[in-house]
Design brief:
The complex is a heterodimer. By secondary structure, chain A is an alpha/beta fold. Chain A has helices at 45-52, 75-80, 98-104, 114-119, 122-141, 157-170, 187-203, 215-221, 239-243, 246-253; strands spanning 5-16, 19-30, 34-38, 60-65, 68-70, 83-86, 175-179, 207-211, 224-229, 232-237. Chain B is globular. Chain B starts with a helix and ends with a strand. The chains are: A alpha/beta, B alpha/beta.
């Protein structure tokens, strides 16, 4: 099971005009694992996520998802194939409640047309109840019952991050991309978030790729780690191997030039 | 939950057989399982438990509850729980945990609820002391705590859990899901009629002398003790108070207080089981306020700090409201303060005032009570600590029938209670039904009550010390009877002291006056055998934080806000007002507060500064903040302190800082200030 490749990145290069963001990077993500992408600022981590979910289109290389190659894809196509993500800077609908935000994550799963939904009767109502049930499971899972009806904009940052994770989970993704899920959190919030990430991975079997700066957290959470620097892959492997890799140490601590 | 739906169908099939099988006269049940069986027969379809789960309220009738509890009892029996064994319950108020209590009682084992927020070491002490064989825990957090202490708990066989999140990958050699235990038990009962008969016999065999429950005292001083309560006495005590307040099966209450507290076990469990009332369990600890509003309970019980927190929240929100609303609120609250209590006490009130109050009810009190979840309250109690007079009358004035009771774990629970219509904030009421009270020569309150405890577990000697030779229980509280027969409690007998000049010093009296201010969360008063009274204070972060925001005061942490000069100014004014009030009381005028400081950290039960029921442990605090308590009396203006704090997960850290001590002027009886 663990050896099944869910997503493979092959020789991907991405540039914006003359700036090379990613240069010839290859790695894979196995089904059911927690895969971390780390690296110093500007290493191309977020660009890599954006390539994976189809927001950027690499000039060279290809991406295989479920073994099928794809070159150009729109983010919503990635979403409908089961790739969900959260953002470095929380991107929620601030004026809407927690529940509505999470329900928004179910959009792709709703099949009744505009007509039925406007009537809010019969099949559309039954469908909505089903989705509400699913969202309530997520709310219970993430322990955010108390803010179910609170407008998201009024919530503290740590909780907003949790709501955003909830919205991504509502898509029932096969691959979940988390862009710095713990940025700006205090220790306790980080611990909570780590627990949720592990639980998502174990309980739902969701494959997770995450970018994170807190190396302690990354070492504890992930099964395997890719290290990027200036758009190049400099290391790839299990946490212990990566931790002792001289190139990684140099990238983080700097070397005398 | 799956189990409930199945039960509905079964209850219908079996209803008749059960009624035919056991027709006993009502009112003779002397154990909780017998009461449960009784309710399943006479009011099987009435709601017994509710729980908000996944955003929806689910309800279990008495017959469904009976069915589930039987299944659970059988399941526990299979796991090896026998008569006389102990089973601990650790978690929030959830139906499955309440059912575990009854299921254990059905097997004549003794349930031992434990405070869920206890740190691992505290919890291990109780489990060890109580010889617990099985623990029913709420979730992963509790299971982790228990497993970290596994090597200390030699007798522990199984850990059961209610919420599965995060536990799926754990080694299940000694772990079980409560729901699975229940389902297996029910299957066994269905398959083998002999087991069902044996369970019936076990219920019948239960006697009034069975150890119904063991509740650990909060331990204001020293380690907590296991108070052993008998089934018959518990039921008898609950019958008395159910009759006293006229509680019926139409009543409903929200169970949100710690399971391990006598207040929850009596008010929610015992009374509901006697009256056949409905127990509603909140979705989570953070949603209680909203759940309260949705349920609209008819009976409500809360310690004073809950009422304090409510008033604080109302005050903050009114300060942020529009000018019109604020003026309307202020106006009608003034009307309520003048007439509300008189109307509630059915005194004669002029018609114009009644009309004015009625208008206030429509515009302010009604909506306010609705927001607080008090619209349907018939009777509400507060206990656990003395309540501030003004806080008490605020809630009464808006039409909430709030009463005080005085009780103890050892009494299970009532010693005194306010009767309707004779309610005063400073007294705790008349002796409860069938309770005898006397005041010992040294002023200590002593009682004999129907629910009185049997002994402390494994500590008969301590129990003998607590009891007088003629069978009265010493409360350790100093008090006296007023002329109308109502009891007035002064303080813990050993806390009441004297200043060096002989003035009476009742620390709690002063602390409660301070705590009435929404900005002050905790107060710790010192002064016994000293020249003057001084206090350490905690500010209430929500209230002072909101004030800081309005006044453009920036702060990053509790510590920073607490040390801000303008906060000191604000709090200083409150302390001064308390001094002015004390000056008006001849007995207390000498005990005015001369110096005060604001602590750089919130007092916390995890650090041992409060008991699990949130009472301050004065001597412990004095010792812990020794530089500060010394500073209060050696004239220092600024003291440096560094102290250890325990985080919620049990890790420790260090807080250090500089604390300012402020001097205050004295008031004389005429209300004028006089130089100190």
């Amino acid at each position: 099971m663990k050896d099944d490749i869910l997503l493979a990145v092959r020789n991907v290069s991405l540039s914006f005009g003359g700036v090379r963001a990613i240069t010839d990077v290859s790695f894979d993500i196995r089904k059911g694992e927690i895969r971390a992408i780390i690296g110093p600022n500007g290493a191309g981590k977020t660009s890599m996520l954006n390539v994976i979910n189809g927001f950027y289109h690499p000039q060279e290389g290809e991406i295989l998802f479920h073994g099928r190659a794809r070159r150009r894809m729109k983010p919503y196509e990635a979403a409908s194939q089961g790739i969900a993500r959260t953002f470095q800077n929380v991107a929620l609908f601030k004026g809407m409640s927690t529940l509505d935000n999470i329900l928004a994550g179910r959009t792709l799963k709703m099949h009744r047309g505009f007509f039925w939904q406007t009537l809010r009767h019969g099949p559309a109502l039954a469908e909505e109840i089903e989705h509400r049930k699913f969202c309530e499971e997520i709310i219970d899972f993430l322990e955010i019952e108390h803010i179910r009806k609170a407008p998201v904009g009024s919530l503290p940052y740590g909780l907003q991050k949790r709501v955003e994770l909830g919205r991504a989970l509502a898509m029932e993704p096969t691959l979940l991309l988390l862009d710095e899920p713990m940025a700006g959190m205090n220790l306790e919030e980080k611990q909570d978030m780590s627990r949720f990430i592990i639980d998502v991975n174990q309980q739902y079997g969701t494959t997770i790729a995450l970018i994170e700066h807190d190396i302690g957290v990354v070492m504890d959470l992930s099964d395997r780690i890719v290290v990027l620097e200036y758009g190049h892959k400099i290391a790839d492997g299990v946490p212990d191997a990566v931790k002792n890799d001289q190139k990684v140490i140099d990238a983080y601590l700097g070397v005398a030039h | 939950m799956r189990i409930a739906q199945r039960a509905t169908a079964r209850a219908h099939d079996e209803g008749e057989r059960k009624v035919a099988a056991t027709a006993r006269p009502a009112g003779t049940e002397d154990t909780f399982p017998k009461l449960l069986r009784h309710h399943a027969q006479v009011r099987g379809a009435r709601p017994a438990f509710r729980h908000k789960d996944r955003g929806v309220w689910r309800t279990w009738s008495w017959s469904e509850t009976y069915d589930n509890v039987r299944g659970l009892a059988q399941g526990l029996q299979t796991l090896g729980l026998r008569a006389g064994d102990k089973i601990a319950i650790v978690g929030a108020n959830r139906p499955l945990l309440y059912w575990t209590v009854t299921a254990a009682q059905m097997l004549r084992a003794t349930p031992v609820p434990v405070y869920a927020d206890a740190v691992a070491d505290e919890m291990a002490y109780v489990l060890e002391n109580a010889d617990v064989k099985i623990v029913a825990a709420q979730d992963q957090e509790q299971v982790d705590k228990l497993q970290s202490m596994a090597d200390r708990l030699k007798l522990l066989d199984y850990i059961l859990y209610d919420e599965e999140r995060g536990l799926r990958s754990y080694d299940h050699a000694r772990l079980r899901r409560i729901e699975d235990v229940l389902a297996e038990g029910r299957r066994a009962l269905d398959d083998d009629p002999a087991l069902a008969r044996a369970l019936d016999e076990s219920i019948d065999a239960g006697t009034a002398d069975d150890h119904s429950i063991m509740l650990y005292t909060s331990g204001t001083t020293g380690r907590s003790k296991g108070v052993v309560l008998a089934a018959g006495r518990s039921v008898a005590a609950a019958r008395d108070t159910v009759a006293f307040d006229g509680i019926t099966d139409a009543d409903e209450q929200l169970a949100y207080l710690p399971l391990a507290w006598v207040g929850d076990h009596y008010m929610n469990y015992a009374q509901a089981f006697v009256a056949g009332a409905c127990i509603a369990c909140p979705e989570s600890a953070d949603t209680v306020q909203e759940d309260l509003r949705e349920i609209g309970p008819s009976f409500y019980f809360a310690p004073p700090r809950v009422f304090e927190a409510m008033l604080t929240r109302v005050t903050i929100r009114m300060e942020d409201a529009s000018a019109l609303k604020r003026r309307m609120f202020d106006h009608f609250i003034a009307v309520a303060r003048k007439w509300g209590e008189k109307i509630l006490n059915r005194e004669s009130v002029p018609l114009a005032a009644r009309l004015h109050y009625a208008l206030g009810e429509a515009l302010v009190y009604g909506p306010l009570k609705n927001v607080l979840g008090f619209s349907n309250i018939r009777v509400a109690y507060t206990a656990g600590e003395a309540i501030g007079g003004e806080l008490f009358s605020f809630f009464r004035s808006i039409g909430l029938n709030l009463k005080q009771l005085y009780g103890q774990t050892e009494a299970f629970l009532y010693v005194t209670a306010h009767p309707d219509g004779a309610i005063r904030a400073e007294t705790v009421g008349l002796p409860a039904p069938n309770v005898e009270i006397r005041i010992a020569a040294d002023g200590e309150v002593q009682f004999k009550s129907p629910g009185q405890f049997l002994t402390y577990y494994k500590d008969d000697e301590k129990a003998r010390e607590t009891m007088t030779p003629d069978g009265f229980v010493r409360t350790g509280d100093a008090g006296f009877f007023e002329e109308d027969g109502q009891l007035r409690i002064l303080d813990r007998a050993k806390d009441v002291g004297k200043l060096a000049d002989g003035t009476l010093f009742a620390p709690k009296y002063i602390e409660n006056k301070l705590k009435f201010f929404p900005n002050i969360k905790e107060a710790v008063a010192f002064g016994d055998r000293c020249d003057f009274v001084s206090v350490m204070l905690n500010i209430e972060l929500t209230a002072v934080g909101a004030w800081a925001e309005r006044n453009n005061i920036a702060y990053a942490s509790y510590q920073e806000l607490a040390a801000h000069p303008r906060v000191y100014e604000l709090i200083g004014k409150h302390v001064d007002e308390v001094n002015a009030a004390l000056a008006q009381e001849p007995r207390m005028a000498g005990a005015q507060i001369k110096r005060f400081l604001i602590l750089p950290k919130e007092l916390d039960a995890d650090d041992g500064e409060l008991t699990r029921t949130q009472k301050v442990r004065r001597s412990f605090i004095a010792e812990r903040y020794k530089p500060l308590s010394d500073g209060l009396y050696n004239g220092a203006d600024i003291v440096d302190i560094s102290t250890e704090v325990t985080f919620e997960d049990g890790r420790k850290g260090l807080i250090s800082g500089r604390v300012k001590i402020v001097d205050l002027a004295r008031h004389d009886a005429a209300g004028k200030e006089r130089a100190a």
